Amino acid sequence: MRRLRLIQAALLLALLAPLAAGAQPARAAFKETVLSDPQPGFDDPRRILLQISTSDEREINNILWNAVNLQKFYGIDNVKIAVVAFGPGMVALYKDSPVRERIESLLKYGIEFLGCGNTMETTHRSPDDLIEGVDYVQAGIAEIVERQLDGWIYIKP
Amino acid sequence: MRRLRLIQAALLLALLAPLAAGAQPARAAFKETVLSDPQPGFDDPRRILLQISTSDEREINNILWNAVNLQKFYGIDNVKIAVVAFGPGMVALYKDSPVRERIESLLKYGIEFLGCGNTMETTHRSPDDLIEGVDYVQAGIAEIVERQLDGWIYIKP
Amino acid sequence: MRRLRLIQAALLLALLAPLAAGAQPARAAFKETVLSDPQPGFDDPRRILLQISTSDEREINNILWNAVNLQKFYGIDNVKIAVVAFGPGMVALYKDSPVRERIESLLKYGIEFLGCGNTMETTHRSPDDLIEGVDYVQAGIAEIVERQLDGWIYIKP
Question: Where does the secretion signal sit in this chain (chains A, B, C) (predicted)?
Answer without folding.
Answer: 1-23
